Amino acid sequence: MSYKVLYIDDETKERSQTYADGLSSKGLLEIVVKQPTKYEDLISELIAEQNTFDALILDLKLDGNQQGERVAKYTAPSLASGIRSKYFSDNGFNKEFPIFLISSEENLKKYYDSDTASHDLFDNTFTKIKIGDEGVMYEKLIESIISAYNVISKGNNKFIKILNFNKIEQIESRIFTSRFISGEGVSVSEISQYIFNEIVNKSGILIDEDVLAARLGIDIDKSTDWKSLLSLLNSAKYSGIYSDSLNRWWFSEFLFWWNDNFPNKTLIQLNASQRVNLLIDKFDIKKLVAATAIDKTTSTKFWTVCQAYRTPLDPIDGFLIDGNQLQSWQDKRYISLQSILERDAQQKGLLIHPEENERLNDLKLEYIK
Amino acid sequence: MAVPPNIMKQRGNLATDLRKLSGVISQYFPTADFSSIESAIGELRNKERIPQIPGIKTDNNIWGYSLDKIIFKFDKKPDDVIPVNCKDLKLILDIKVLGNCNDLNTLKDPFKWLEFNIVIEGTKFTEKENEQLLTSYHLDKHVQVTGDGEPEYPHPIYHFHFGGRKLLEHLEQNNFETGGIMLFESPRMSHYPMEAILGLDFTISNFFPNVWKKMKSESNEYNNLIEKYQNLFLKPYIQTHASQWDYISENLEISNSWNPYSICPQNCK
Question: Where are the domains of chain B?
Answer without folding.
Answer: 5-245+259-263
